[in-house]
């Protein structure tokens, strides 16, 4: 092996070491530490007119039953008449029923299970205008504009999607927020997808011809 070959091998070895160092350095610089997003407390579900509540009274099946919440927000069960239920959590309603039953049953233990969720009126999301199926929807945690559009079947052919807006009450005042439904539905622009809040009203106007 001559001197030129030895020098070539040394240069190749040094180049390999340098390349390896650069690769490791690049990997280290791009490595990121997972960031934990702050946990947002989910508000307790409040019973509303139209909900069904399954009332279970321990060891008293004769007064255990499933009843609907009337439009006036009250329920009626055996031994309990016209008890307000709207705006309460299932736990709060269970305690109220226990108090009412305590006049007839010694130390009643009540469990309330909510079914057929509708929610209170001020927490529902309403969709009006040129939606395929305009309606009021029950709000669900982390509900987005896309979720609402799926629930109402999208918009009609006469809708002016990019002129739509959300009416939202903030600090007691109603505010109008423009939204871009056409960009979201037709263009797949995810940046047009926004989070919904309880009580929002989505207004979809008709296009001008």
TrEMBL record:
Q: How is this protein positioned relative to the membrane?
A: Multi-pass membrane protein
Q: Which residues form a coiled coil?
A: none
Q: Name one GO cellular component term.
A: pore complex
Q: Where is this gene product found?
A: Cell outer membrane
Positions of the SLBB domain: 125-203
Cross-referenced InterPro entries: PEP-CTERM_polysacc_export (IPR017477), Poly_export (IPR049712), Poly_export_N (IPR003715), SLBB_dom (IPR054765)
The protein's UniProt keywords, in alphabetical order, are: Cell outer membrane, Ion transport, Lipoprotein, Membrane, Palmitate, Polysaccharide transport, Porin, Signal, Sugar transport, Transmembrane, Transmembrane beta strand, Transport
The protein's name is Sugar ABC transporter substrate-binding protein
